[in-house]
Amino acid sequence: AIVMPRAPSRWSVATGRSTEFEVLGGAAHEGPFPATRDRGARIEAALLHPIPHRGRLRIAVATGHKPIAVDALPSLATPQEAARG
Question: What b/e sequence results for 14-51 when a residue is b if at least 16 CB atoms lie within 10 Å of its CB, and e otherwise?
């Protein structure tokens, strides 16, 4: 699961192809992100979040069974702390 502080403002999803042309061409979508499945696991997604210059956006990927709450994002390890172990 991907945990974000807010939904992306725009997004693109593709099965068996790249999202690059849709995103760079200005054709990314707004609104709810659709449920997408592919037996071959060839799904690519681009989640677009506008942030100010020098701003940052903390996103977590939960890989285990324990969920991550959105309000816990600020307390998670920084990339440097995670790299140090």
Answer: beeeebeebbeeeebeeeeeeeeeeeeeeeeebbeeee
Walk along the chain (85 residues) and give the pLDDT tens digit of each residue: 889 999 999 999 999 889 999 999 999 999 998 888 888 888 999 999 999 999 988 899 888 888 888 899 989 888 899 899 8
CA-to-CA distance for 49 and 62, rounded, in angstroms? Answer: 19
- Cβ-proximal residues to 7 (8 Å cutoff; 6+ apart), any chain: 33
The neighbour count for residue 52, using CB atoms within 10 Å, is 6
15 DSSP β-pair partners: 43
- Token couple for 33: 């992100």
Alpha carbon distances (Å) from 18 to 28, 46, 57, 61: 12, 9, 24, 21
